[in-house]
Amino acid sequence: MDPETFIPGLDLAESFYRAAVRPILDAHYPGLVHSAALLGYGSEVLGYDTPRSMDHEWAPRGLLFLSEADEAAHGAAIIELLGRELPHAFRGLPVDLVRSSPTANAVMTRVAEGPVQHRVQAVTVAGFCRWQLGHDPRPAMAVVDWLVVPQQRLLGVTAGRVFHDGLGELGPLRQSLHYYPDDVWMAILAAQWRRIDQEEPFMARCGDVGDELGSRIVAARQTRELMRLCFLIERRYWPYTKWFGTAFARLACAERIGRHLSAALAGESWPERERALSEAYSVAAELHNALGITPPIETVVSPFHGRPYLVIHSGRFVDALRERIADPLLREVAMTGCVDQFVDSTDVLSYTARYARLRSFFRLG
User: Fold this and answer.
1) How far apart are CA 56 and CA 352, in angstroms?
2) What pTM was computed for the model?
């Protein structure tokens, strides 16, 4: 597709709903109570789409939320109606999303006639939640659900845009999932410091024995863990790998700590990487102290148990945070973390049925 025709997906979806979808609903189902939004999957839901995104699974699209009764009575008929009456093109872009084979990605395709192969879906709020999160979190998320649902899936509900909320359900849902409750947040924050603590001296130790590749790998791992820590400090969900760096760059602390992280990755020797990581550790410690959730903790690096490797001694932050947590389960979680912190498989984190099995990890049924 011509990059000059690019319209950010959220803007396109809202315009499509207001100019094309809503008039058809009003004409055929006057007074139908519904909500409309673009939530769930897709780079455009996060606001990160570019002209490159237009090459697959991208088009004017959206979700129509209906009540349970209306979805059962009219959902299929509304989707069929839209197929008959929607235009094949909108704002110069094809509306039809066509697959060349059952396993191929759907691609915007210019079609001249016949039913429009649109990507407007009729759903209930409960059904969307079950698909996106694995369960309906209303009236409230249980502790284990906060720990098991990946952050990308939570972003699929809290990011995106609501165009109309006639049902009055999407606003409260999104607000309730805006971020972790304080006690869960502190446990996950402690677990992130624990991740840093586990490998703090290894970058220098690898370099000290001549393992340059190993030293670089550890530096990269610590960089990722510090970036994740920054998301937690600013109470922002982190997205999956493709958009992780993009989202990090938009954090308030990114400029302050990011230059040290970039220097750590660019360092030509392990002492250079150690200096850069030391600066990053100190900034992270200062950011933690600014939260005011634990007594102030020393922010200057020092040698690791008498060895000449400089670390921030992250275990101190873990211990201080665990002191604030009364729930025995969350005190234990503070040593392991939520699903994003101990599972690194896309084929687990992307499928509700698979990550839901991890409920047993937290010893809850």
Assistant:
1) 23
2) 0.94
